Amino acid sequence: MLAKLFTYSLLGINAEPIEVEVDISPGAMPKTILVGLAEAAVRESTHRIERALVNSGYNRPIDRIVINLSPADLPKDAASFDLPIALGMLTASGQLQSERFEEYAAVGELALDGVIRPVKGVLSMAIAARAQGKRGLLVPVENAQEAAVVGEIEAIPVGSLAEAVGFYSDRLDVQPTQFSWERALSELAKYEIDYQDVKGQELAKRAVTVAAAGSHHLLMLGSPGTGKTLLASRLPTILPQLSPEESLETTQIYSAVGRLNAGESLMMTRPFRAPHHTISEAGLVGGGSTPSPGEISLAHNGILFLDELPEFNRRTLEVLRQPLEDGNVTISRAMGSITFPASLMMVAALNPCPCGYRGDPRRQCKCNPLQIERYLGKISGPLLDRVDIHLEVPSVPFRELSDMAPGTGSGDMRQQVEAAREIQGARFREYRIKTNGKMAPRQIRKFCRLDSDAETLLKTAMEEMGLSARAHDKILRVSRTIADLDRSDKITALHLSEAINYRTLDRNYWA
Predict the structure, then answer these.
(1) In the predicted model, what is the mean pLDDT of residues 375-399?
(2) Torsion-angle region of residue 157: left (phi > 0), alpha (psi -120 to 50) or beta?
(3) How far apart are CA 14 and CA 18, in angstroms?
(4) d(Cα 342, Cα 294) in Å, to the nearest integer?
(5) Where are the extended beta strands (E) located within 164-249?
(6) Is the pLDDT assigned to residue 466 strictly greater than 90?
(7) DSSP string for residues in 23-34
(8) What is the number of H-type helices and E-type strands within the chain?
(9) Taking residues 341-368, what's their average pLDDT?
(10) Residue 509: which pLDDT band, with cuts at 50, 70 and 90?
(11) Which of 152, 178, 186, 426 is 20 to 30 Å from the Cα of 498, by its Cα?
């Protein structure tokens, strides 16, 4: 007999529909043949499936079994094919009859005792099932909430092969899992950190607020212990709440790489990624023979924090230049190209010299000029040009550290950011962008017009500081955000002056 079922295979962060065909015919010797460009994890599945069938009380077919995974030219590398292949073998051998195979697809990894284990990428598979017009998707119990996020299809939780057989044969009534956005919001959209934890540094908090309001990249320079990491790690707490669309995009990436926390069906807080400086280029931007997302895609809709920036390999940092501008990264392999989203805020921190105490009034720097030049020279000018805001973080005086009065907290900063984002949302409602930090030159010319005083100030700054054309646009973008925080329609010389001050650091340290 010939059995046909439907399942899905991950390609990048998206899922592609797969048709599973199982044919059993008499043969002189029992043999199982698996075709369809299956990788090692799929080829090995036949042994798991045979023992799962026997241990679940079913008969193992002893004839010639041919399993085809179509389309044949699509690489398949996952254990999620176990369940549909097992169901196909039962159907082709006459142990299962069902009229539900057209309406319900199935994914899941089988244990030797027939228990169904969770798999990666269930959210993407549920989205693909909805696009394909399926009524529902059978998923492992642990993945049911994740699949239920996608409306218009039924997420059927099954814990064992026997339960899946019972559902397909219409002998077992399994209720679809329900998902509540309000409940997820109340349980998962919480932060345990706050900017009140950061003593002093009110000027730095102002710069962080400007960066968050316009989604501008930020570079912080200061001696060890001045609070650079504290400032960066709390940035997600002042960014606007993830919209349903953003939450789905972010969760899809984490689901595809198996990074969702236990019990977390949907990501409700913005991601904060802080890779170690030993990371490779593929680890940062993504890669592999079958491309998978890197850290910049895991930071999509959130923060990518690069601490100790000069310690990163220079070549690794250079691969960031294109994704920071475009908001996505394309990985090309012989099998084709896959594009991953990478719309993020990059925050970087570094010391002013190898010992860290250059310019510190309380500690003496022991680095010679050659060491300092070599240390800072690891960061290229083109990469610095792509950072909108450069911030020097000074040491905090003892009186501010010992002051018990609370400083500016995340709540107040978030209100300012959300108000500025609302203005930008109205401004860019006819465009694909959402924030000032993503404005193209045409939008800069339209929305960042200067009066005569401000234009004179910008011209003087450009000539004296030797800024590039890209830095010119960055200053205008930042000044537009500062004006939005001030609820001003016009960019004044005061707004422009603050934006220019955020571009002086590279001229002082890298000149």
Answers:
(1) 86
(2) beta
(3) 13
(4) 9
(5) 218-221
(6) no
(7) EEE--SS-EEEE
(8) 23, 18
(9) 90
(10) low
(11) 426
